[in-house]
Amino acid sequence: MCTRAMESDCRIPMACLRPRILALHALFWGLVSLRVFGAALLSDEKAAVTVTKAVTAPCWQLEEFVVAKECSACEGLQSKTIPACGQTGFVEKINCTKSNRDEYKSCRSTKMEEHLFWKFEGAMLALTVFFAILVVVRQRSLDRQASDKVRRQIESI
């Protein structure tokens, strides 16, 4: 509770009440809450999926296996017939040692990883250039405002 002596400490600064600042706060906290509630919903869905997976787990999760065919891209017919192709678009053929069954397992190819890496690097470079330009423009604007203020002060003398 604020007393009269400290009343100024209790007030929200006027700079915080500008519409742009309020909109940015609303956007930020909206994204944070979306992230938190989205993660909670996803964990509930994953829990439900793991219950069904425990009943019909593939043999490569339960026993040792040997890779019969290295990780390769799914072709047209494979992507429709093999469910493992849907996750990453790449699949490897494995042979389970105990049950001697051939199954397909989703995998991540080095080519795909390299593509994702360069895509990320490009995005970071673009953001760096964008914010560098933004800083230069803002600095020029502030310099112009400061020189105008000095000029007005000199003219008023």
From TrEMBL:
ATP-binding is among the record's keywords: no
Topology versus the membrane: Single-pass type I membrane protein
One Gene Ontology cellular component: spindle
InterPro entries, per database record: JTB
One GO BP: mitotic cytokinesis
Subcellular localization: Cytoplasm, Cytoskeleton, Microtubule organizing center, Centrosome; Cytoplasm, Cytoskeleton, Spindle; Membrane; Mitochondrion
Pfam families assigned to the protein according to its UniProt record, in alphabetical order: JTB
Membrane spanning residue stretches: 21-42, 116-137
Complex and partners: Interacts with AURKA, AURKB, BIRC5 and INCENP. May be a component of the CPC at least composed of BIRC5/survivin, CDCA8/borealin, INCENP and AURKB/Aurora-B.
Role according to the record: Required for normal cytokinesis during mitosis. Plays a role in the regulation of cell proliferation. May be a component of the chromosomal passenger complex (CPC), a complex that acts as a key regulator of mitosis. The CPC complex has essential functions at the centromere in ensuring correct chromosome alignment and segregation and is required for chromatin-induced microtubule stabilization and spindle assembly. Increases AURKB activity. Inhibits apoptosis induced by TGFB1. Overexpression induces swelling of mitochondria and reduces mitochondrial membrane potential.
Name the record gives this protein: Protein JTB
Lineage: Eukaryota, Metazoa, Chordata, Craniata, Vertebrata
